[in-house]
Design a protein that fits this description.
This protein has 400 residues and is of the alpha/beta class. The protein has seven helices and 26 strands. The structure holds ligand LQZAQKY5 and molybdate ion. GO terms for molecular function: metal ion binding; molybdopterin molybdotransferase activity.
Length: 400
């Protein structure tokens, strides 16, 4: 295991290889879920003028207790044309432009209107109350958000409010997933005793569904160099090729020789983590660009965990994310944990909002346990045993 990288080193090396893809400009709503390729600046000021925050009356003074004479109306989209003076009031609605000279907005619940006469019947007016000042949200030319942030629904709304119809983002990565192994059956209903259903490819595709990318699946591919060469050749247009299985040291683990025969260079192989040790990263120069290959271990839980910690961050980095790695949270474990082993370990667990319960089944092929887990509990390599109630770091999975 001496050649295995630590998890942070391996992630850093992988992300250093990830060149964000070319920039394209798309309609703002099509940019949802992608990452800004340039900083976002305001093309306009918001609000563009002082606005009322409530339905009521804009008053020309705040020091009297009325009555006031109502001289007109300012509705949203229909401003009042003219000033309001002391002793005068303008009927105003939420979001409408404050007339020139207005000092405050008197809530309609605090006033009584008879004809054009307004009298105070509740709380007295206070200078400046219920007014949204011009530009409090942002001003024209202001830098709003940095490149690399995700276009969320709120960022989309900000983009439109700031006067943009389009956004620059990175092209969607083209990803090919290759399942390999002679034992894999494509049809789970037709699975002989010597076979198991090929579940990794569909699982990885489903994990990638949360990111903007195009995914094609190939396989299951037989454990021969010729079959793997044909699969890799079919993936020659991809920005990223992801294999699962055949990454270890067995006689039939052919991903490494197949990649080398295809002209790819191994960037690194093996990470000191459990599950996920045989992870492999390679790259192939195609002349004008570079393809990356991520070789995930075949064990389904190992594939899942390495996809969470390497594949999804890599795709985010290709999309230009400024923060591609998942974030951890701290919580408290409900059971005693033994001392850590040689590798950093991720136990599957159930996080209930306050504490995390480690599952009893931790085999790296255990899909039933994985399906009920919603957290990975981090156990440092060679760490001391921990009693129930100890703090632990977790990754939350969108899986529970
Ligand atoms: N002597 C050693 N043996 C193993 C080592 C080692 O260091 N020395 N590492 C072990 C570790 S850790 C892992 S993880 C596995 C992973 O090996 P591979 O990536 O070569 O995966 P395979 O051997 O091809 O398959 C492992 C397991 O997963 C099943 N599998 C594979 N692909 C799929 C798929 N698409 N869908 C569902 N299941 C799949 C496969 O049938 C095997 O059961 O190696 C250990 N061995
Ligand atoms: O590292 Mo392997 O992924 O434990 O089963």
């Amino acid at each position: 295991m001496s050649s295995a990288l630590s998890l942070p080193d391996a992630q850093a090396q992988l992300l250093a290889l990830a060149q964000p893809l070319a920039v394209e400009t798309v309609a703002a709503d099509e940019a949802l879920g992608r990452y800004l390729a340039a900083p976002l600046h305001a093309r306009r000021t918001q609000p563009p003028a002082d606005l009322s925050a409530m339905d009521g009356y804009a008053l020309g003074d705040t020091d009297s207790h009325g009555p006031w004479r109502i001289i007109g109306e300012s509705a949203a989209g229909h401003p009042f044309d003219g000033p309001v003076a002391a002793g005068e009031a303008v009927r105003i609605s939420t979001g409408a432009i404050l007339p020139e000279g207005a000092q405050t907005v008197l809530l309609q619940e605090d006033a009584t209107r008879e004809g054009t006469t307004l009298t105070l019947s509740g709380d007295a007016p206070v200078q400046g109350r219920h007014i949204r000042r011009a530009g409090f949200d942002f001003s024209e030319g202001q830098a709003l958000r940095d490149a690399g942030i995700k276009v969320t629904p709120a960022v989309l709304a900000l983009t439109l409010a700031a006067g943009h119809a389009t956004l620059p983002v990175r092209q969607k990565p083209r990803i090919v997933l290759i399942d390999s192994g002679d034992e894999l059956a494509a049809d789970p209903t037709q699975c002989a005793r010597h076979q198991i259903p090929a579940s990794n490819g569909p699982m990885l595709q489903a994990m990638l569904a949360s990111l903007p990318c195009t995914v094609t699946r190939i396989g299951p591919v037989a454990d021969t160099l010729d079959a793997l060469a044909a699969a890799l050749d079919a993936a020659r247009e991809a920005d990223l090729i992801v294999t699962s299985g055949g990454a270890s040291v067995g006689d039939h683990d052919l991903i490494r020789p197949a990649l080398e025969a295809w002209g790819a260079k191994i960037a690194f192989w093996r990470v000191a983590m459990k599950p996920g040790k045989p992870l492999m990263v390679a790259r192939r120069n195609t002349g004008d660009s570079e393809q990356l290959v991520l070789g995930l271990p075949g064990n389904p839980v190992s594939s899942y965990v390495t996809a969470f910690l390497f594949l999804l961050p890599l795709v985010r980095a290709l999309l230009g994310s400024g923060q591609p790695l998942p974030t951890q949270a701290q919580t408290v474990v409900t059971a005693d944990l033994g001392a850590g082993g040689k590798r950093l370990e991720f136990l599957r667990g159930i996080w209930d909002g306050n504490t995390v319960i480690p599952l009893s089944e931790q085999d790296s092929s255990g899909l039933h346990a994985l399906s009920v887990a919603n957290a990975l509990i981090e156990r440092p390599a060679m760490g001391a045993a921990q009693a129930a109630g100890s703090p632990v770091r977790i990754y939350r999975l969108e899986n529970g």
